[in-house]
Design a protein that fits this description.
The chain is an alpha+beta fold and 254 residues long. The chain has eight helices and eight strands. A hairpin with a 2-residue loop joins strand 1 and strand 2.
Length: 254
């Protein structure tokens, strides 16, 4: 009794094909189910694949993948060791160091930490190849030297005191910071010189970041300083290409 129904189904399929309806979704599946030898389970090709649309590649975050930074609980003799987040030393008005700290491996005429000194030499050579002159205005400064500088500024330039770091709050004491210029133009106008523009564009390529960007005084505690560059290593510095990010923001401290 099954054969007549099969014949009818086949005849119906033939008629549909002749009428141009064979591309109707599910038509082939219905014909197959009417044939005794076919399986009643639809094939995977009938259902469109959900993964047909490619998943967009996530944009890398400007911040390192890290948990909440550890609290700075140092006090007394512990201040001889700087506060660190993800291996990066942080020295500021909120995270100070004592007079007992200095660069572990200082070298060169500016007494910089050796890695910073090597990166500075490469950067200076690269600028020279581009016809730009870079001069060091200030490198390492001891706690005592910084204290004398701050006290002098407090007496003579109190209106500009936010440009000066108290002793123990200066990155210069770490040997990882340098003040740079062209040997002619200093202070804020330095940003408009060929040297200032070159540093702004290329410093991160050599592991340095503009430590106190424009408009970030509330975060850093210091006014914009286009001359002050801090060495943090190329891997991290490459995430500061536009010089708008502060170290505090990058490390989750702001």
């Amino acid at each position: 009794m099954r054969f007549p129904s099969v014949a009818v189904a086949l005849a119906l399929a033939t008629a549909l094909a002749a009428a141009g309806c064979s591309d109707e979704p599910g038509a082939s599946a219905r014909v197959a189910s009417a044939t005794p030898a076919a399986t009643s389970t639809p094939t995977a090709s009938v259902t469109p694949s959900v993964s047909a649309t490619p998943t967009p590649t996530p944009t890398p975050s400007a911040k390192p993948t890290t948990t909440t930074p550890p609290k700075d609980t140092r006090a007394g003799k512990q201040l001889a060791t700087p506060y660190e987040v993800d291996g990066i030393i942080v020295v500021s008005k909120k995270h100070r160091i004592s007079a007992g700290y200095g660069p572990p491996d200082p070298t060169g005429p500016y007494h910089l930490e050796s890695a910073a000194a090597r990166a500075l030499a490469k950067r200076t050579a690269a600028a020279r190849a581009d016809g730009v002159r870079i001069r060091v205005h200030s490198g390492y400064r001891s706690w005592t030297t910084q204290n004398a500088s701050y006290q002098k500024a407090l007496r003579n330039y109190p209106q500009n005191i936010s440009f000066y770091a108290p002793a123990g709050a200066s990155e210069h004491q770490t040997g990882l910071a340098v003040d740079l210029w062209d040997g002619v133009t200093w202070s804020l106008p330095m940003a408009r010189t060929a040297t200032g523009k070159w540093l702004f564009r290329h410093a991160h390529e050599y592991g340095f970041v503009l430590r106190y960007p424009d408009g970030k005084t509330k975060i850093t505690g210091y006014h914009y300083e286009p001359w002050h560059y801090r060495y943090i290593g190329k891997r991290d510095a490459m995430k500061f290409p536009n010089n708008k990010l502060t170290l505090e923001e990058y490390l989750g401290l702001a």
